[in-house]
Write a structure and sequence with these properties.
The chain has 497 residues and is mainly α. The protein folds into two domains: 249 residues, Cytochrome Bc1 Complex, Chain D, domain 2, CATH 1.10.760.10; 205 residues, Orthogonal Bundle (Cytochrome Bc1 Complex, Chain D, domain 2). It is 28% helix and 2% strand. The strands form two sheets. It has a three-stranded antiparallel beta sheet with strand order 1-2-3. Strands 4-5 form a two-stranded antiparallel sheet. Strand 1 and strand 2 form a beta hairpin.
């Protein structure tokens, strides 16, 4: 349960989004969809293979009872086979870290032009995503799904929801950020990587993939940094200097030549009492605090399916149970979406149409291959977890599908869905940004994972049943995240446009 932050009392509770309630009974597997990633600075051509998710001791499916129906008995067998389990609780976070992290998450001071924050693309009114196929960072205007391009640029991938992010071993659609089993980092910034990183103090503070992820939107010119010539952070000659310039905004310098923000000095001092000089604070402390806030505020893990797993068999309707039987059985979803979080943490090519400017070059995104350099990784993207998937649209790595029904129907015949993609479902701005180049389209089709290449026969009734089951993965606490939003932030900048 998210604890109210005493430094920011009285956050106004907002109206629940009617669309979320309407979806409670009909929602989809974002298959290999869900949230996304954004452009990074200086991706190395080859990165070590990230560690696989740490094994989670599953809470066993409640054994059959005399009141179980035939559907319950069938589902119990299939769910146990897929290691489905109630999500474990996230680690309890230090309240002072959470307080600082909340301020930083919502404060535009972290962006080069002081016009966007983490909250811009991870809005509490949109399931901690933004409701857009492709996000609009610095230079844009507006909120959530109504955000306009204005002077901004489209990011290359769909922004991920950050609901229930604790414990993920890798971050971003291509897993370009990972904390390896030996404790070293694999990231887009070489100064953080390996057993002897140049920026050793920062690297030592980035204790998880989630923590390490938080420093990279700050470097992206299209997300938060701004374009060269617009501000001092955008003009910084290196990653380390860009981070250092942001720290001087927040806490200033030891000689007070740059005073920083007094309220941030107080918050950093409380969260990190062992740090005695302002010059010793660095971006790793920012990342630690933001990660602590995200874990505390967005730890959603109670859903009707969890209740069913724990033995309350009436928590699921018969339609939802039939959808779950399809999911864990004939439809084959659990081949990639097993375990408590309903993900294998691996990377698969499923033939998603290319929408938007492209991550690698215009109209092209090779996914995991852009990190590893391995041609066999072309068009492979990380399998997202499906918890709260109904709240995290649009779906797929580039938001190609704007309804859950369209996303699930992709798996009936992925090749046909790729080659015959209907761009009219997209926002008008994106309809002309769908790649139809025959050579690239053929390469995407040939890269299809064997598990989805032949598609799966699903009639409309079965699609609806799958949607219903995936709706039952929604934690009711995730329907209203407004308690996480403060009324003000230390910089005094506006939180919303």
């Amino acid at each position: 349960m998210f604890r109210r932050i005493p430094c920011f009392p009285g956050a106004t509770t907002k109206e629940l989004l009617g669309r979320l309630l309407a979806l409670a009974g009909t929602v989809l597997f974002s298959g290999c969809g869900g949230g996304g990633a954004t452009a990074e600075a200086g991706v190395p051509p080859v990165a070590p293979t990230p560690v696989e998710p740490a094994p989670v001791e599953p809470t066993p499916v409640e054994p059959p009872s005399a009141t179980d129906t035939a559907l319950d008995l069938q589902l119990a067998t299939l769910a146990a086979r897929a290691d489905a389990a109630v999500m474990p609780a996230s680690p309890v976070q230090d309240p002072d870290l959470v307080t600082l992290g909340q301020a930083l998450f919502f404060d535009r001071i972290l962006s080069g032009n002081r016009d966007v924050s983490c909250y811009t693309c991870h809005d509490v009114d949109f399931g901690a995503g933004d409701g857009l196929s492709l996000s609009v960072g610095t230079g844009g205007f507006g909120k959530g799904a109504d955000r306009l391009l204005d002077r901004g640029r489209l990011t290359a991938r769909n922004a991920p929801s950050i609901l229930r992010v604790a414990g993920q071993p890798t971050m971003f659609w291509d897993s370009r950020v990972a904390r390896r089993g030996d404790g070293t980092l694999a990231t887009p910034s070489a100064v953080l990587n390996g057993p002897a990183p140049t920026a050793s103090a920062i690297a030592a503070t980035l204790t998880s993939a989630l923590t390490a992820q938080a420093v990279f939107p700050l470097l992206s010119h299209d997300e938060m940094r701004g374009q060269p010539g617009e501000n001092e952070v955008a003009d910084a000659p290196s990653d380390v200097e860009a981070w250092a310039r942001l720290m001087r905004r927040l806490v200033g310098t030891d000689n007070d030549a740059e005073p920083g923000v007094a309220a941030y000095r107080d918050l950093f001092a409380l969260a990190f009492p062992a740090v005695v000089r302002w010059s010793d604070f660095h971006v790793g402390h920012v990342a630690r605090a933001i990660a602590a806030f995200e874990i505390a505020a967005f730890d959603t893990r109670g859903s009707p399916f969890d209740a069913w797993l724990a033995g309350t068999r009436t928590a699921l309707t018969d339609t939802e149970k039939r959808g779950a039987i399809l999911f864990f059985g004939r439809a084959g979803c659990a081949a990639c979406h097993g375990g408590p979080a309903l993900t294998d943490g691996r990377h698969h090519a499923i033939g998603v149409p290319q929408v938007g400017p492209g991550h690698d070059f215009p109209f092209e995104d090779t996914g995991r291959a852009s990190v590893t350099g391995d041609p066999t990784d072309r068009y492979r993207f990380r399998t997202p977890g499906l918890r709260n998937v109904a709240l995290t649209g649009p779906w797929m790595h580039d938001g190609a599908y704007t309804t859950l029904g369209a996303a699930i129907r992709h798996y009936r015949n992925p090749r046909q869905a790729l080659l015959g993609y209907d761009a009219t479902q997209l926002a008008p701005l994106l309809r002309t940004l769908v790649d139809t180049d025959p050579v690239r389209q053929d390469a995407r089709a040939r890269a299809l994972d064997a598990r989805v290449r032949d598609g799966v026969a699903l009639n409309d009734v079965e699609v609806g049943q799958l949607e219903a089951f995936l709706g039952a993965l929604t934690d009711t606490a995730a329907l209203d995240l407004s308690a996480a939003e403060p009324e003000t932030v230390p910089s005094g900048l506006p939180i919303d446009d």
